[in-house]
Design a protein that fits this description.
CATH architecture of the largest domain: 3-Layer(aba) Sandwich
CATH class of the largest domain: Alpha Beta
CATH superfamily of the largest domain: Glycogen Phosphorylase B
Number of strands: 13
Structural class: alpha/beta
Strand content: 15-25%
Helix content: 40-55%
Number of domains: 2
Shape: globular
Order of helices and strands: EHEHEHEHEHEHEHHEHHEHHEHEHEHEHH
Number of helices: 17
C-alpha cells in the first residue's frame, strides 16, 4: 500500500512522528510531501531531525502569505504530485491550510482521504482553522478522532461513515519521546530554570498577535507575574512586537524571558517541568494536560473542550486582569482522566488503513 502524507506545520510534524513509525512497522510505503508552510529550521527541520520522521520526498516551499494565495499554491503543487504518484491513500493532519489543500487535491482526483484529528470544533467561524477542519472532515473517507467529543461533533453533522475513535497521536508522541527528552535535552540548565518554579507561555494566534490591544494585554499580564515566565517567541509574534516600541517596553520586565522557538524535545521538557502553562496554542493546551500541568488558555473558546470540562484548563481570553488572576489562583482537581487514549493511536491508524 502506498500512502502520501501532507505535512506543513509544527504541530503536524509532532502528530506524524508516531504514525510514521507505525507505518514502517506495518510495511506501509509512505511518501511525505512538505508544503513549506513552516519553513525555517526552528519551526520545521528540527522536528524531522529530533523525531526521526523520514525526509520529505518533495518540499513545495510555499512559505507564508495570505490564506488564499498560500492555499492555492499548495493545491496546485499537491495536485501535480498526486497525478504523478497516484497513491492508494492521502493522509492529512489537523486543521492548517496544508490540511485543506491536501484534502481538496485528493478528493478532486478521486483518491481516498484519511484525516487524523478529525471532528474537532471550536464553533468559532472567525477562525480559519475551523473552516479547514469542517471542510476536510466532509470530504474525508477515514476520520480518525482523538476523543469521544470529536465523534459526537461529527455525528451532529451527519458524518458517521469511516469515523474511528483512535485516541490522539500527540499522546503517543509524549509517551514515545519523553524518555529521550529527559536524557538529551539541556534546556532547563541553559535557561537556569528549576522544576515547577516557572511559567511556560506561547502566543501565536492572529486573534492575539494581529490585534495590538490583545497582544499588549497578554504581555502586560505575563510581565507582571512575580515568577519567571519563559516565552518561546513565534515568528508572527516576534514581528508584531518588533514593530511596536510600546510592546518592547512592556517586555523588559526581568522575570519575562523571551527565547527563540525551540525543538520538540526542548518544548516537552519545558512543559513537563513548568508550574503552569499559558498559551493560545491548541496543541500546547493538550500537551499541558497530558503532562499534568494546569493550562491558562488565552482564548475565549477551545476545540479541546474536554480539558476545560474536567477542570484542567481555564479560558481567559486576552484580558490582563483575568490572565493574572488565573495564573495566581487556578488549581485543577486531583483527578485527570485519560481523555486522549492510551498512547496507541498510531498503531490503530496503521491497522485501519492497511
Amino acid at each position: 500500500m502506498n500512502i502520501t502524507t501532507m505535512l506543513g506545520a509544527r504541530p503536524q510534524f509532532i502528530k506524524a512522528a508516531p504514525v510514521c513509525r507505525a507505518f514502517r512497522d506495518a510495511g506501509i510505503n509512505e511518501t511525505i510531501i512538505h508544503t513549506g508552510q513552516h519553513y525555517d529550521y526552528a519551526m520545521s527541520q528540527v522536528f524531522f531531525d529530533q523525531l526521526g520522521i523520514p525526509a520529505p520526498a518533495m518540499n513545495l516551499g510555499v512559505g507564508s502569505g495570505n490564506h488564499g494565495r498560500q492555499t492555492a499554491a499548495m493545491l496546485a503543487g499537491i495536485e501535480e504530485i498526486l497525478l504523478a504518484q497516484r497513491p492508494d491513500r492521502v493522509l492529512v493532519y489537523g486543521d492548517t491550510n496544508s490540511t485543506l489543500a491536501g484534502a481538496l487535491a485528493a478528493v478532486k482526483l478521486g483518491i481516498p482521504i484519511a484525516h487524523v484529528e478529525a471532528g474537532l470544533r471550536s464553533f468559532n467561524r472567525s477562525m480559519p482553522e475551523e473552516h479547514n477542519r469542517v471542510l476536510t472532515d466532509h470530504v474525508a473517507d477515514w476520520l480518525f478522532c482523538p476523543t469521544a467529543t470529536a465523534v459526537d461533533n461529527l455525528r451532529r453533522e451527519n458524518i458517521t461513515q469511516g469515523v474511528e475513535l483512535v485516541g490522539d497521536t500527540m499522546n503517543d508522541a509524549i509517551v514515545l519521546f519523553t524518555p529521550l527528552a529527559e536524557r538529551s535535552s539541556t534546556i532547563l540548565q541553559e535557561l537556569s530554570l528549576e522544576s515547577n518554579k516557572y511559567i511556560l507561555a506561547t502566543i501565536h494566534r492572529p486573534s492575539n498577535t494581529d490585534v495590538p490591544e490583545h497582544l499588549a494585554q497578554i504581555l502586560t499580564a505575563l510581565a507582571s507575574v512575580d515568577e519567571i515566565v519563559v516565552l518561546p517567541l513565534h515568528p508572527r509574534t516576534q514581528a508584531r512586537m518588533h514593530a511596536s516600541p510600546a510592546m518592547q517596553s512592556i517586555t523588559r520586565n526581568g522575570n519575562l524571558r523571551i527565547v527563540d522557538p525551540v525543538g520538540y524535545l526542548e518544548m516537552l521538557m519545558l512543559t513537563t517541568h513548568a508550574r503552569i502553562v499559558a498559551t493560545d496554542s491548541g496543541g500546547l493546551q493538550k500537551e499541558a494536560y497530558l503532562c499534568g500541568k494546569p493550562c491558562i488558555t488565552l482564548r475565549e473558546e477551545t476545540e479541546w473542550v474536554e480539558t476545560v470540562q474536567v477542570g484542567w484548563s481555564i479560558l481567559v481570553g486576552s484580558d490582563a486582569a483575568r490572565i493574572s488572576a488565573a495564573i495566581a489562583s487556578f488549581q485543577p482537581p486531583a483527578s485527570r482522566p485519560a481523555l486522549f487514549g492510551e498512547g496507541n493511536a498510531a498503531i490503530a491508524i496503521a491497522q485501519l488503513l492497511h
